[in-house]
Hints:
7-stranded mixed beta sheet, 9 helices, 17 strands, disordered N terminus
Amino acid sequence: MDGVALLPEWTLQPIFTTRNAQGLRPQARRFSLKRGNGAQKALFFTVDVYPEFRPSHPSRYYGTWQFPIEVSGDSLDISVERVGEEWKLRIGEEPIAPSNVLQGKMRENGVCRIYAVVAERDTFRELARAEFCEEISFDGAAVDTLLHWPGRRQRTPVISDAAYLSLKTISRMLRDFSADAGLSENSRLLDVGCAHKPYYPFFAQSGCEYVGVDIFDGQFVDKIWLPGERLPFDDATFDAAISTQVLEHTSDPAAIVAETHRVLKPGGSVFFSVPFAWEEHDYPSDFWRFAERGLRRIFDDFNEVDVRPVGNSRRCLVELRNLLEHRCRKPGRYLDYRTALRNRLAERFGKNAKTAQDFALPSNYAVIAKK
């Protein structure tokens, strides 16, 4: 029927009993599998495990465990847990043996990203998926949580990444911001659109309270903030705020900035990064690209506003070429080599050229402002 949103066939919702650093510790993970408009049927519940940083198959891949499950009603409570080097699944108190196990080659301590996938048993058609991160140690040694915190790709990008030049610059800017913000253990920092809080390690040493909001619940989300609503905090309660590559996904970016301004203490500082010349990327929607004058208007309520280009025109063109090739070419070593070579040349020869001072076409902008 026109104008009526259809229910998904199935939904798989993780239940996070612990979050943030505690949520990374090995533990039983609970999921609620619910039937929408799908038929009752025999299913597979699959656990795919990859390293969070630089995953690839099969060299940087831990393994896959496939469990047959039967859903007789409208919902099912599922628990999965790593025991030794195996993953175990329970439905209620009943253990379910895996029907298929594929072992990868990776045996490296760190944080892994685990994908839970529900699929039809006869056709393998995917019906629902969810994910979580967990620390895994293969030799019993303690995992350095801050080093392996999710989002290493953003903090320490690899040179074969299509967005390497922008990611490296934004990471450096955020490191500088964390040092200049003057945060302490009595401070509070707000991460707007936090996802997995990739830049938390930059602020952890200050001891500040790091609070993340997002429109989706998640393992690292402290509060849900839905579009059109006020932030769930009182006025002037945060000493600083950050938001990276979020405003383009909001229907009213000015309202997001205004709410961030409201909850910021006088003298508090913010860091926002936004795209100017970048491919369209829905998550869940992509609405905007931002120019310098537009950003100054959006941040007009702040006393001090510094709008900085992230990279110059030459680097932007390199990244756009990278993005195009990553869309058109098959992933692999040849593509990685070409991307890394372009990035390396852009870094090495772009500093002294006249075009290094041409900022008319940056990939992104960063805004650093004070209330």
